[in-house]
Amino acid sequence: MFQRPDKQMGAAIKYTLPPISRFFVPMPEAWLRTKLKYKLKVGSGYLIKEKERGPKIFKDLTMHAIRGLWLTSLRPGEIREKYGLAKTPVLCFTPERVEGEVVVRPDELDRARDIVSSYFFGVPMRSVVFVDCFRKLVFANGFEKAMNFLKEIAGLCPRNNSNLLVQIDPTEFSKRQLAAIKARRVLRIFRHKERERR
User: Fold this and answer.
1) Strand partners, 166
2) Helices vs. strands in the chain: H and E counts, helices first
3) Mean pLDDT in the chain?
4) Beta strands 67-72 and 90-93: pairing type?
5) 7 vs 9: CA distance, rounded Å
6) 83, exposed or middle or buried, with CB in 10 Å at 0-12, 13-18, 19+?
7) Tell me, what DSSP letter sits at residue 137?
8) I want to staple 15 with a disulfide (CB 3.0 to 4.6 A). Which of 2, 115, 169, 195 is the partner?
9) Residue in 149, 151, 161 with CA at minimum distance from that of residue 120
10) Which CATH entry fits the domain spanning 26-190: 3.30.470.10, 3.40.50.300, 2.60.40.640, 3.40.50.1220?
11) pLDDT tens digits for range 95-121
12) Where are the alpha helices (DSSP H) in 36-126?
């Protein structure tokens, strides 16, 4: 059982979370003091359309003393190996069990939201959440419900100056869906001007 004090109510909010080992010790990958390559507005969510840009931004942040959480439908071990992540928790959306990992069914968005909220926004430390499987969530839950999930996570970001990154392939969505994503204003479109000087 995890407890987070609620300053306004003067009581503790309790979360029932799965008994997994290493997942629940979120730590930055490194504590580099160099400048970030990508300058993001803290407390904001970003939609990233450029292929492979999302993982690079996420890795850059986690190497600069920012805790990360990666939400994916791929195998966590493959993510860690490909991107060199040793300390970053990976939450996998899958109906199957994966030994030693935290998994959530693709249609269990409420449970996924609670995990993100309690472990990454329940303490006053900047974090970054990266979602690379939005298309899968749309398929499992429908567009509206999947968008609401992103809206809820994005709404948590200002609490401790965190960021939400959502990587999509625009070719997998209809023009109407892309227009709806933009119209909701839940996520900023990541553009070149958000990049730091190299």
Assistant:
1) 47, 131
2) 6, 9
3) 85
4) parallel
5) 6
6) middle
7) H
8) 2
9) 161
10) 3.40.50.300
11) 998 888 889 999 999 999 998 888 666
12) 53-62, 76-83, 109-120
CA distances from 114 to 91, 120, 121 (A): 12, 10, 10
- Residues 79-96 pLDDT 10s: 999 999 999 999 999 999
What average pLDDT does this structure show over 168-174? 95
Backbone angles phi, psi at 10, to 5 degrees: 70, 20
Spatial CA neighbour of 190 closest among 80, 48, 34: 48
Residue 175 has phi, psi (to 5 degrees) of -60, -35
Rounded Cα distance between 112 and 106, Å, is 9
What's the one-letter identity of residue 19? Answer: P
Is residue 162 helix, strand or coil? coil
Distance CA 132, CA 78 (A): 13
